[in-house]
Write a sequence for this structure.
């Protein structure tokens, strides 16, 4: 699968280097969050890459929910485990769980359909900032710390329409998937902001399901247009540099 160059297998475990994680974020997700830069002080592997690796190993179920429990650093040995009840976990093989996945319904294992869905799903991350979050924060009068912006996944969920609703086989409806924004909401509570992004999932323009992403924005403070303008300018500078040096598939 196209994910092969974004991780390695070592003694039966999955490992993601800082460079592999950064390349995935920029090239596939169009995500230029500094926290995914290889030299970032608080570097972490993109949640979108963990999401994609789960689908690569266990397939795409008609209904899935991903709960992110902890950040994954570079070169951490990861276990991808399926329990007898179908529940999935990504952990360190000891005492730390990074991702919990619940799922239900038919499973799609077609690599072509899974790759199309992964690319569609994670490309929406490239539109989180500044396209969606900037006007959302501005409307609420808050913003993150411009010197250390922190925007992290809390959860992601998806639901493909049931066959009797006209969707048919789950894999057959994902040859040209697209996420279309339905609504976006920011609930500010002190220094923490909870963002909910709802999407319609279309295939060839026809609705086939829904997707919800929940993000956490930390370090909230009063909105400052000048500071935000500087952050946006830096975002586009990093994006231009990343696209110029090996991120031809970047979206957003």
């Amino acid at each position: 699968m196209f994910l092969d160059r974004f991780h390695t297998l070592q003694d039966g475990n999955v490992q993601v280097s800082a460079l592999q994680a950064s390349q995935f974020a920029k090239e596939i997700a169009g995500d230029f969050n500094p926290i995914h830069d290889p030299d970032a002080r608080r570097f972490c592997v993109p949640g979108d890459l963990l999401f994609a690796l789960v689908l690569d190993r266990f397939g795409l179920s008609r209904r899935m929910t991903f709960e992110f429990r902890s950040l994954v650093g570079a070169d951490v040995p990861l276990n991808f485990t399926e329990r007898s009840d179908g529940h999935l976990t990504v952990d360190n093989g000891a005492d730390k769980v990074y991702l919990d996945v619940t799922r239900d319904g038919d499973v799609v294992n077609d690599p072509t359909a899974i790759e199309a869905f992964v690319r569609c799903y994670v490309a929406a991350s490239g539109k989180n900032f500044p396209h969606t979050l900037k006007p959302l924060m501005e409307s609420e009068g808050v913003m993150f710390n411009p010197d250390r912006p922190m925007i992290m996944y809390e959860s992601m969920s998806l639901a493909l329409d049931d066959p009797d609703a006209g969707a048919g086989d789950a894999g057959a409806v994902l040859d040209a998937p697209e996420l279309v924004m339905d609504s976006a909401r920011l609930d500010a509570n002190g220094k923490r902001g909870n963002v909910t992004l709802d999407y319609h999932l279309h295939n060839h323009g026809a609705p086939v399901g829904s997707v919800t992403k929940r993000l956490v924005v930390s370090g909230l403070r009063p909105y400052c247009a000048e500071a935000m303008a500087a952050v946006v300018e830096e975002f586009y500078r990093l994006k231009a540099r990343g696209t110029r040096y090996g991120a031809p598939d970047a979206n957003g």
